[in-house]
Amino acid sequence: KAGVTQTPRYLIKTRGQQVTLSCSPISGHRSVSWYQQTPGQGLQFLFEYFSETQRNKGNFPGRFSGRQFSNSRSEMNVSTLELGDSALYLCASSLGTGGLGAKNIQYFGAGTRLSVL
Amino acid sequence: SQELEQSPQSLIVQEGKNLTINCTSSKTLYGLYWYKQKYGEGLIFLMMLQKGGEEKSHEKITAKLDEKKQQSSLHITASQPSHAGIYLCGADKNNDYKLSFGAGTTVTVRA
To answer: How many CB pairs under 8 A join A and B?
Structure first.
């Protein structure tokens, strides 16, 4: 079974631009979560989608948005980029069907490294 | 700020020696997850603990969750160079699919 795939792996943008990152979950997984990782703040939760609906959201400004498609693939968008948005963005997928246990183990992709100049 | 406290922040161990990493929360956890990360790469799932007092082992790695479900430890026996990396604990505090992570522990294994 293929793992979580994130594209692109690396991106360089300038301030004010916008960017879209893509995530393909493990086959059969319906939940996709996004995280931002920086040296200063560590790993922080952005949002989680299940069956095209956002179920949970972290404390990030509205410039950060996401969506999920009917095939469970997900995209996140960051508009009006700032220098502080430079980070490793990680996507994780799980079955996400509720309750504890193996259904909620999140499996991560390799990440997209975004550099904002 | 980190909602989970991990200690130590980093450690250097001689190959063949044991090591322990701790992860502490001020709140009871629904689930506690351990991951390993190579610098700049994705997280690799190691183990999940749910029940108070639970202990799981895989190869040379053992993870435990205390009875109150507020503290976990990860123990590596007879460390090898392949154990080097950043170890992160993540927790589902509210059973809402949102994981909060510790700051990570960087492990260096010296030959």
So the answer is: 65
Q: Please report the pLDDT score of residue B78 as a whole number.
A: 97
Contact between residue B35 and residue B84 where contact means Cβ atoms under 8 Å apart: no
Q: Provide DSSP, A12-72.
A: EE-TT--EEEEEEPPTT--EEEEEEEETTTEEEEEEEEETTEEEEE-S--TTEEEEE-TTS
Three-class DSSP category at B79: coil
Cis peptide before B81 (omega within 30 of 0): no
pLDDT digits (tens, 9 = 90+) for A74-93: 999 999 999 999 999 999 99
CA distance A28 to chain B (A): 17
Q: Write the residue in A31, A100, A107 that is nearest to B31 by C-beta.
A: A100
A26 Cβ contact partners less than 8 Å away, ≥ 6 residues apart: A1, A2, A3, A4, A93, A107
Which residues fall within 8 angstroms of residue A99, CB to CB, at 6 or more apart? none
Query: Rounded to an integer, what distance in angstroms lies between the CA atom of residue B104 and that of residue B99?
Result: 14
Q: pLDDT digits over B3-33, tens only? A: 799 999 999 999 999 999 999 998 888 789 9
The residue behind tokens 């799981």 is: B56
Task: Tell me which chain B residues have a C-beta less than 8 angstroms from the C-beta of A104.
Answer: 31, 92, 97
